Amino acid sequence: MLLPATGNSDSMATEIPAEKCGKCQCETLHSKSILYQILNKEHGSETKWHQQHCSPHCSARSKCCPCLDRRVVLRTPEATCRRASEVLLKTSTFIRNLPSFYHMPWEDQFVLIQQNWVPLFVLGMAQEGVDFDLREVPATSLLKKILLNQSSTAMNELGSSSAGASFTEVQKMKNLLWKFWDLDISAKEYAYLKGIILFNSECHALKCLPYVQSLQQEAQKALMEFISTMLLGSLSRFASILQLITSLRDIDADAIEEIFFRPILGEATLNVLLIETLYIKPDWL
């Protein structure tokens, strides 16, 4: 079983206890003076995000408090981005090696890649055991905003354009990774799961929808038979794995691009890169 390293505590980091996920931290600071909050904001520019502090509780409480949804970046971007790129390359290689995928019109190939690359990528991260630590992107302090006399509109625009990805969205991905690792999924199961995800029959715009539906059903049947044979008919495992697939589709594509590929791609989009890598050539490219 792949168990990613959890790391050591960081004295410069501000930990978020799990029990505070269900209650707005703004409420806990309500009794403190405005000056205290301003000065306190200036200390500790980095936050050590750790799986044990917030992940299981936040996911069950509708994204926690808005004040926790800060912008985050990778703590070790060079190493993590390299591993993420390797996962993306392996994912595209898997797709290229499927003759059934290239038997479809390029329009269908394009739709399937566009709608399914995120769950395929996250599944690849799980299979490769890629864990990662985050640090908070320091927000512009309230004191600075006051001194610069910025309007509320300007503050909102500044916040929306901050570097980094949403902590809530990235943490959602980390939670799913741990769920996959807890199930200790085998290489064959991962292969069947990739087929189920890629041949997504919910993409109703497909020209060859019946063909895609048959391929997805074939992959689901193969997965169920494998689990039944290897685990003596454990249908609960089959149901749990299929439920994780549904959760994979909720992962935000923008958060994935921002945190893993923005340092590499710049302003380019991952959709276009994948299509070019897979030799799918729509007329507008």
Secondary-structure map with pairings?
Blueprint (H helix, E strand, L loop, with lengths): L24 H4 L5 H8 L9 H9 L11 E4 L2 H20 L2 H4 L3 H23 L5 E3 L5 H7 L3 H9 L4 E2 H17 L3 H12 L10 H22 L4 H14 L4 H13 L4 H8 L8
Antiparallel strand pairs: 1-2, 1-3
Polypeptide structure, described:
This protein is mostly helical and 285 residues long. 60% of the residues lie in helices and 3% in strands. It is built from 14 helices and 3 strands. Strands 2-1-3 form a 3-stranded antiparallel beta sheet. α3 crosses α9 (167-183), α4 crosses α6 (106-128) and α10 runs antiparallel to α11. The protein is globular and about 65 Å long. It starts with 24 loop residues before the first helix and ends in an 8-residue tail after the last helix.
Main attributes of the structure:
3% strand; single chain; 60% helix; mainly alpha; 14 helices; 285 residues; three-stranded antiparallel sheet; disordered N terminus
Number of helices: 14
Computed structural class: mainly alpha
Number of strands: 3
How many strands, what sense, and barrel or not for the largest sheet?
A: 3 strands, antiparallel
Largest sheet: spatial strand order: 2-1-3
Query: Roughly how many Å is the radius of gyration?
Result: 21 Å
Which regions are unreliable across 5 or more consecutive residues at pLDDT < 50?
1-31, 42-53, 55-64, 154-161
- Globular, elongated, flat, extended or rod-shaped: what is the shape? globular
Mean pLDDT over all positions: 76
β content, as a range? Answer: under 5%
The amount of helix comes to 55-70%
Give the SSE order as H and E letters. Answer: HHHEHHHEHHEHHHHHH
Distance between the termini: 42 Å
